[in-house]
Every structure is written in structure tokens, then in C-alpha cells.
Amino acid sequence: MSHPAPLRPPGVPAARRHELPPAHGAVICVAAPCLAISPEHGQLTGRGIEGIYRAGRRLLSRCVLRVGGRDPVAVQGRSLGADRAAFTATVRTGAEPGPDPDIGVERVRHADGTERITLRSFAARPVRLPVEVLLGTDLAELAAVAAGHCGPEVPAGVHAAGLRWSAGGAQAVTAADPPPDDALASSGLLRWVLELGPGESRTIELRTTQDRVARAPAGQVANPLADARAEGDDPRAEAWFRTSVEDLRALLLRDPAEPGDAFVAAGVPWRLGLAPAESLWAARMALPLGTGLAEATLRILARSRHGGSGPGAGRIPGPLRGAGPQLPPGCTGTEATLAFPAVLAEARLWGMPQDGVARLLPAAEGCLDWLRGALGADGFLADPDPGPRRCETQAHAHRAALLGADLLAACGRPGAEEWRQWAAALRERFQARFWIDGPDGGRPAAALHPDGRPLPRLTGAAAHLLDTGLLSGGRLAPGLLDRARTEQVARLLGAPAMDCGWGLRSMALQEPGHNPFGHRSGAVRAYESAVAVAGLAQAGFEKEAAGLLRGLLDAAETFGYRLPEMFAAEQRVSRSAPLPHPAACRPAAVAAAAGVHVLTALAGIRPDAPAGTVALVPLPGAPLGALRLSGLRVSGKPFAVRVSRLGLGMVEEAADALQLGG
Is 627 exposed, middle or buried (0-12, 13-18, 19+ CB in 10 A)? Predict the structure, then answer.
């Protein structure tokens, strides 16, 4: 694990870092590892991060269409799904008098590099149209594009049905169907002359690949996610759930070491790869869609763990992640190591096959062994070491201990009672050291400095204190806080300082340094908001859970139901709206999984597949009205549940051996 850079001496300026190109206005299509990033007008101009990518390589950066010597007038750009988008434009050729366009242009672009350009004539007489497509690429890596280090365009060569480019061992080919009438490599030009009668249309298909194969394969990963759906009184729930599942599928990638195992990439455009913590949290929140994704992700991370017998033995490696201006970066490897036994324990309850659990159990025990030896002299876990004792890190450690104990006991392994006692001792220390009393009821510290001083910031990390995890028999694990302090945290999260009306702020409004665009200092993070909704619902705080849920759904609607990983939002007032963060990934794994997590939390599904039971504890009051979730998976079989307008839950479909309990 790397550590934060040392502090700069006074008066020494920081090296200027290149800013990420803005991505918030882009129309992004993804079918990992394929990616298409387009401006809203659809013309790929080579600016910024625009282009067709595969496995992190930009195959095409310029694709400019001209019809009759004119640039089409953009009318609309819209997403048609996670992996494709449509761009509508018009052309006025002058064949007819008046201002009306007489040619319609529809471009449908796919993440796999396929684009279909359809021209339709609205003219009253036949028209003869020259159609030109200007192509170009720099064959740059996405990382170089993000850093502003991409080079000039690569010279093109004529391909049998289009153009090709090659440089430094990289290659791209764009083939056209029908083949162009002319191809000019020096200017990257493909040209057709089309004749259209009244009402007629013609289509040109462009296929951009890394080689001469006609079409780039996409969707290669076997889909481990069930084809579930939501429907109910609020139609937005269906759209949000559907988009969330589509985006999770679009982010699936194979593990290069074991192609049979798939994981969810962290997000696009910047993190189209494995991120240990985010990929594992997304798999956990997607457990209602089946245990296959969690099992594969756990296998991948188990193979990456540190071996041997040293201080880091059993730990999952991971990069540092920024924590905002108040704290140094945290380590995603620590977070993933603590999540591993908890996710395995919960996946077992949702119905992961017993042989799969058994194969992963030694890795979970290794994570727990690392945790036992990683506590500092003060009894808390630093992240990184040496460094602050973060509030959420203690919550993750506590959950790992309790759910790990449940897992060990269920699998006949020793140590369960020892871990329960360990968790009880951590709970006592946490309440004594992390809780800051005050006339308003107090609050948890965001962290303890290494010298023991508390950092009295109220942040979204407090939501993790309510996420206790699921135990056998449909029981929730106890949290780090007693009931009175849990109630105070719920009150704080539901107050306007944290609930901005669009979700949970990452830092309270009144805190010094609050920034509505700050990724850890005020912006709304979809993942933390979903954790808060589910945790509040499980703890019985209906009002606060419902308020955050409605705000998050309203935000999802604003973003076309594809929530970015974070966004800015001032306090909600009439006619206001959340604002996109220019550097946010969208789609992002944890933001997509948040839609599944929040909506299934409304039903309060608590399975214990090995015991053959499932409990339902719906959120009272039914904040979205009646809701039906179908196509879920419990015990590997279809599961459907309905929540009435009165907040009553009913199982409509389940495995034959599954009994309603709790």
C-alpha cells in the first residue's frame, strides 16, 4: 500500500495537476470494455475525451458527418440504453422554398463501435445528396487523454471498405457498409453520393474495431444478474430500477486471470476496471439480483490477497482514495478487506451455493486474522497506518467481526464467540471515544487523530454506523451505537444540514470548508445516500428514510435515472435542481447499485437461504405507494414481493422450500 505524500514545506507551491476533462455533458455508452463518449450533438470532433474506446484505447476520436456540404443541425441527443444512444439532426438542402428542413438524419451509436447513419428525405421531389464522413484518431490511451497527453492524429490508410490507422503496435479500422464511393486517406474522408426519392431513406453503417474483423464483440461476459424489474404506483421506480440493472450489466468485465469470473468496473469514463472496495460494495448491494456477481468478485479479490505470515498477510491490496480536505487519503484495500467476510456472510444468506462459500471461507478467515493484528494500541483501526481512525472504518471492522462470527458459527469453524466479544469491546470503546456530547444530543466524530483528538465534523460517513449487516434468521447485527445515539444519528442525517432534499450531503452544510461540489466535503454521493436510506429503514426511522429516498429518486429522475457517483446540490427549493459534477463517473458501479439497494430496502427482504426462511420488514408508510419487485433471486430461484399502499409485504413467488418467517 502506498502512503500519502509528505506535507510541503511552507512557501513551496504545489505542482500544478492537470484537470480531468469535463464529462458531465457527454452522452456515454458502455458495454465494458467498449465505450463511446459523444457530445450532445453527436459529432465526434476530437476534442476532450470524445471518441470510441476499447479496453482503454481510443480507436476513433473524430467522426464528423456532412450532408450536401453542410453540417447537420443538431436537434436532440438521447440515451437508448446503457450501451447505445441516438442523435437526431436535420438538413435544409434548399431544394424546397421556405425554412423547413427537408432531410432528417438519425445516428445510432453503440458502445461496441458500430454507428448507423440513416438519412430520410422529406422533399417533394428526388434529391441527390453528397454525404461525407471525416474520420481520425490519435490511438491514445484513455489515461493519456485524461492527463492531457494525447498526441496528434495518426495518418490514415485506405482499407478495403474504409480507413485504417496504426501506430506503436496499436491499430484501428473503420469499415463502411455500403462501401464509400471515394476514400481519401490524406484527409480521413469517406464519401458517398445518395439518391433519395420522396419519403425514402438510406442507411450507412460504420464499424470501428481494433482489427479487420467486421464487428467488435461486445457483451462477452456471462451475465450473473437476474432480469428483475420494479413496478408500482410511482412509475419512476420502474425506470430507476431498470436503468440501474442495465448499467450494472454494462459495467461487467472479465477477470484477465480467470475469464470465467466477472466483476463490476468502478465507473466510466475514468475507472473502467476493478476497484476492490467499490466493486465489492456494488456486488453486495446487487445481492437481490443473485449471488453470482458477489461470488465471482470475492474469488477475484481472494486471489489478490497478500500471502505469507507478515503484518499484511491476509489483506486485500488497493489504491488510496481521496478523502477531501479534512483527512488524508484512505486505503480502498483496507475497506475491501473488512468488507470481504461481511459480503460472504450475507451472500450465503441470499443463497450462495455451499461449496462456493466453503472455497472462500479460508480467505474470509485470513481477512479476519489481518483485522485482529491491525488494531492500534488504542484499540481502533487506522486507515492508513499510521493515520486517522475513521468513523466508517470502525463501522466496517465491527460489521466484519459480527458477520464473520455468524459465518464461522454457521460453517462449523472455531472463533465465533471470540469475534463477538471482540466486537462488543470495540462497541464500548467507540461509544466512549468517538461520541462527542453536546446540548443538541451530540454527534459521532468523523475520525480520531493519531493522538486521540476527535475531528468534530459531521459527514456522510456517519451513515455507515447504521449499516449493521444481516445475520442468520433474518436478524440485523447490532451497531456500534446504543439506541439513544442511533436515534440522534438518524435525526442528524434527516435534518436539512445533511439532507439537502436531493440526497445526503457528504459533509454537513454548516461545517467549515463545506463545498457543494466537494467530493467528500459537501457533494451528494449516491452510495452514501443509499446506505443511509437502507440503514434508517432497518433501524426503524421511517420519516428520515422516506425523506432521503424521495430526494434520491427525484435526483435520479433529473439525471435520466442514471445517477452519477456524486453531484452538487444546494438546499432544495421550488424549481431548483441538482447539478452535475464535471469529474464524476456516470455510470458508476456503486451509484447504479444504489438504485437496486434503495428500492429493495423498501420491501425489507431478510433471507436465510440455508435455513429455508425469508422475512419481510417493509418500510412503514409505503413512501412510493404500492410497489412490486419481481425476478429477484433468493436461494437461486425467482423471488417476487409486493408492498401495498399500507406498507404491508407479501411474497408472490419464491422457491418451494422457502418459508416466510421473522
Answer: buried
CA-closest candidate to residue 535, choices 460, 449, 456: 460
Cβ neighbours of residue 501 closer than 8 Å, sequence gap 6 or more: 551, 554, 569, 571, 572
Instruction: Count Cβ atoms below 10 Å from residue 462 Cβ, excluding itself.
Output: 27
Contact in structure between 385 and 371 (CB atoms under 8 Å): no
One domain for residues 349 and 308: yes
The whole-number pLDDT of residue 215 equals 37
Distance CA 533, CA 548 (A): 6
- Quote the percentage of the chain above a pLDDT of 70: 96
Q: Which amino acid is at 239?
A: A
**Nearest alpha-carbon partner for 170 in 72, 76, 53:** 53
Residue 257's domain is classified under what CATH number?
Answer: 1.50.10.10
Q: At what angle do helices 483-494 and 526-539 cross, to 10 degrees?
A: 140
Tally of CB atoms within 10 A around 414: 9
What's phi and psi for 316, nearest 5 deg? -90, 125
Residue 503 C-beta-side C-alpha neighbours within 13 Å: 36
Q: Please calculate the CA angle 171-172-173 and round it to the nearest 5 degrees.
A: 130
Report strand pairing: 659-660 vs 613-616.
parallel
Q: Are residues 507 and 417 in the same domain?
A: yes
Q: Give the 3-state secondary structure percentages of the chain, helix then strand then coil, rounded to 5.
A: 30, 25, 45
Please give the grid coordinates belonging to residue 448: 480520531
Neighbours of 268 (CB within 10 A): 26
pLDDT in tens, 283-306: 999 999 999 999 999 999 999 999
Q: Where are the beta strands (DSSP E) in 495-588?
A: 524-525, 566-568, 579-580
Of 142, 176, 210, which residue is a domain's last? 210
Q: Which amino acid appears at position 624 of this protein?
A: L
Domain count, the chain: 2
Q: Any alpha helices (H) in 105-227, and if so which ranges?
A: 142-147
**What is the grid cell recorded at 612?**
429455508
- Read off the pTM: 0.93
pLDDT at 7 over 80: no
Helix 235-250 to helix 542-558 angle (10° resolution) is: 70
Q: Which of 146, 457, 149 is nearest to 324 (CA)?
A: 457
Residue 386: asked if its preceding bond is cis (omega within 30°), the reply is yes
For residue 641, give its domain range: 229-653
Answer whether residue 104 is part of any domain: yes
The C-alpha cell of 549 is what? 429516498
Q: Which residues share a beta bridge with 74? A: 89
Phi, psi values for residue 271, rounded to 5°: -135, 60
Kind and range of the H or E run holding 67 = strand 62-67
Distance CA 430, CA 342 (A): 20
Report d(CA 377, CA 212) in Å as an integer: 61
Mark residue 250 as left, alpha or beta (left: phi above 0; alpha: psi -120 to 50; beta: remaining): alpha
Evaluate if residue 8 carries a pLDDT over 70.
no
